[in-house]
Every structure is written in structure tokens, then in C-alpha cells.
Design brief:
The chain has a four-stranded antiparallel β-sheet with strand order 1-28-27-26, with no helix packed on it. By secondary structure, it is α+β, with helices and mostly antiparallel strands. The chain has two helices and 30 strands. This is POC1 centriolar protein homolog A.
């Protein structure tokens, strides 16, 4: 079955810049040039929330891993953390000295990485919104920054035409990939953490193995690539382009699988849901679209065996190079599957409980943070009142 359009949401008043699903797929967040963040409910007849707070275009949004927070970055140079509920309360922190183009949570939900036109990548703690450190070797705007799945590495993409790989602990740049012929708009880690993919204004998508810093695959398109997202199986990649199309690439076969037409004008952003059943896209047409993946479950249902891959679409790169890049084949059943299944169920329920606790912690922290902000405001008002009283008293005595 081909991917099919499932829902489509209208409500933004300008180009959509970013989309992301919550963990349980019940909600979808989108940011827009209209300075608003929208939270859409995937249940029919449920109304959307419009969150207002940013003073300028919202360029990036992301749900925390637990789904209890949403981070957004804006042209107003701030980052906001929102509780995606009716009230839509948020805390704001002055993150950069220029436009914030990218926000991304680490997989444990404890850290946030941001990228900006001030040419830096910054890392923050989520709970206190405390600044930790800056990475500053790019010599032009930084469009995108992402944590690796294990949180040890950070990858960043810039208008200086490079993709840089950083070690989070040592804060050093480990490698710069300089093969892009234009600005690099988007970069992300393969779910295995062993490869990265980047797309940009030279209309290409490139995949590198980061253990050997070798180019694995090279897809030549005919339009600027604005955004990309890996399917959780690691076998597919979806891209959003200026020619209004979404393209699904089959990474095992090294070929273009589908071209999807839906948006009128440039497709600006795209993201798979956490389980890969759905993906969402946004465009300059102010629309948010949700697509059903419809891949055959057998294509990615059970994955273990690393697949040798070094193929390239245009045959110019990586040919004859065999590399294990964590892109997987199907698994054969074992007699232990019953036992494994029980163990998996136990692990899943434990993971779910932990996830729930983490989520509650997120909300608590955020609530405390909001209260702190309110307290500060009250203190400021009180101080102002007292100062005014002093002035009045002084005037009277004079």
C-alpha cells in the first residue's frame, strides 16, 4: 500500500515551519511564521489549542520524550517550554542573541540542545532551564542540532556548508563533513546512532557512517531539501522539499520509493511518529497534513541483523564499499520467543511506569517554574508599588 493522506489541519495563518508527534500519537504540535504554536488532537472533533507567547515567528517545535512538555524556538531569540494542555502555560528563557532555529530533547528528556543564527549550538538542562555550555565553531547560521540516540554526541548543520559532529562530554568537534555544495538545512541521527543524514540547498540528501566518517549514500534531487526524518526502523527516510513534494527513500535498496504531492508550494517540515505508523508534514500553504505510512509491516516489523550497505543512488559515491551501518534486515523466529516476549512485556510495563513518573516530574518542574515566574512578577510589582509610595511620601514632605 502507498502512503495515504489521513487528516489535514487548517488553523495557522502563515507558513508552517515545524511538526512533531507526542509519544502516544494523541497530539501533534506545529510551529508557524504566525508566531503561534498549535497543538492538534488526533481524535476527530477535538479542538486544537493555539498557544500565544512568542513575539515573532516560531521556527521549531518538539515534544519531550514523555510527551508532557513541548519546546519551541523563535525568531524572538527565546526558547519556551509549554505544558500542552488547555491553559497552555509556558516558561520562557532567553536562549541566544539571534533567531533560534532548532530545539531538540535528549532521549532521557533531561537536556535540550538549541541552534541559532548567532552561529552557536547551546545545551541546557530541561528542569531548571539552566544553560550548560556552547559549541561555537560554525562560521555561519546554525540551522539544526540533534542529540544522538544515546545522548553522547551532538550533530549540527549550518549555512557554512558543513555538518559537525560533537562529543557532548569533551565539548570538542570530532569531525566536520564538508561534502555539501550548499547550506545544510536539516540533519539527524539514524535510530542506530551509527549514521547521520543531512539535506540542504544543493538538493541532495547524504548519509554518512560516523564511525568511519565515510559517505554511505547520496540521493540527488531536483529541489531544496528543507527537512528529513528517519523511520524508527531505520529502513526509510522521508524528506520535505521546495518543489512541494515529500519523498520516501528506501535505505536498504538505496532508491526513491514514493513521491507524495499534497502541499501547494514548498513543503517545509516532516516528521515520523515515534512508532512510524504516521508522518506529518507542514508547508508554506499554512497546512499541516498527517499521512498513514502503510508500509508492509514485514518490511520493518522485526529487525536485528545489521545489513551491509555502501550503495549510492547515482553510483558516484561509496560503490564497492561494504559497511555495516545499522540498517537492518528481518529477524528469524527463535524458540525462546515466548520467554523473550514475557521479558519484553515486563520491560515495557516498567518502561511505561518510569515514563509516566518522568512525565509527572516534567509537569511538576514546569509548574514550579511557572510559579517562580509569577512570584518574580509579584515581587517586581510590589517593589514598584513601594517605590511609588516612597515618591508620594517624599513629594508630600517636600
Amino acid at each position: 500500500d502507498d502512503p495515504s493522506l489521513e487528516r489535514h489541519f487548517k488553523g495557522h495563518r502563515d507558513a508552517v515551519t515545524s511538526v512533531d508527534f507526542s509519544l502516544n500519537k494523541r497530539q501533534l504540535a506545529s510551529g508557524s511564521m504566525d508566531s503561534c504554536l498549535m497543538i492538534w488532537s488526533m481524535k476527530p472533533q477535538m479542538r486544537a489549542y493555539r498557544f500565544v507567547g512568542h513575539k515573532d515567528a516560531v521556527l521549531c517545535v518538539q515534544f519531550s520524550p514523555s510527551g508532557h512538555l513541548v519546546a519551541s524556538g523563535s525568531r524572538d531569540k527565546t526558547v519556551r517550554l509549554w505544558i500542552p494542555s488547555v491553559k497552555g502555560e509556558s516558561t520562557v528563557f532567553k536562549a541566544h542573541t539571534a533567531t533560534v532555529r532548532s530545539v531538540h530533547f535528549s532521549s532521557d528528556g533531561q537536556s535540550l540542545v538549541t541552534a541559532s543564527d548567532d552561529k552557536t549550538v547551546k545545551v541546557w538542562t530541561v528542569h531548571r532551564q539552566k544553560f550548560l555550555f556552547s559549541l561555537s565553531q560554525h562560521i555561519n547560521w546554525v540551522r539544526c542540532a540533534r542529540f544522538s540516540p544515546d545522548g553522547r554526541l551532538i550533530v549540527s548543520a549550518s549555512d557554512d556548508k558543513t555538518v559537525k559532529l560533537w562529543d557532548k562530554t569533551s565539548r570538542e568537534c570530532i569531525h566536520s563533513f564538508c561534502e555539501h555544495g550548499g547550506f545544510v538545512n536539516h540533519v539527524d541521527f539514524h535510530p542506530s546512532g551509527t549514521c547521520i543524514a543531512a539535506g540542504g540547498t544543493d538538493s541532495t540528501v547524504k548519509l554518512w557512517d560516523i564511525r568511519m566518517n565515510r559517505l554511505l549514500q547520496h540521493y540527488q534531487g531536483n529541489s531544496v531539501v528543507n527537512s528529513l526524518s528517519f523511520h524508527p526502523s531505520g529502513n526509510y527516510l522521508v524528506t520535505a522539499s521546495n518543489d512541494s513534494t515529500l519523498k520516501i527513500l528506501d535505505l536498504l535498496e538505496g532508491r526513491l520509493l514514493y513521491t507524495l504531492h499534497g502541499h501547494q508550494g514548498p513543503a517545509t517540515c516532516v516528521a515520523f511518529s515515534r512508532d512510524g505508523d504516521l508522518f506529518a508534514s507542514g508547508g508554506c500553504d499554512e497546512q499541516v497534513m498527517v499521512w498513514k505510512t502503510n508500509f508492509d509491516a514485514a518490511d520493518y516489523g522485526e529487525v536485528v541483523k545489521p545489513q551491509k550497505c555502501g550503495n549510492s543512488v547515482d553510483g558516484t559515491h561509496g560503490t564497492g564499499v561494504e559497511m555495516d551501518c545499522g540498517i537492518h534486515h528481518k529477524k528469524t523466529k527463535t524458540q525462546d520467543s515466548g520467554r523473550i516476549h514475557e521479558q519484553q512485556e515486563e520491560e515495557t510495563s516498567l518502561a511505561n511506569t518510569l515514563e509516566h513518573i518522568m512525565g509527572q516530574l516534567d509537569v511538576l518542574t514546569q509548574t514550579v517554574s511557572i510559579l517562580e515566574q509569577r512570584l518574580t512578577l509579584t515581587e517586581d510589582k510590589l517593589k514598584e508599588c513601594l517605590e511609588n509610595q516612597q515618591k508620594i511620601i517624599q513629594n508630600k514632605t517636600n
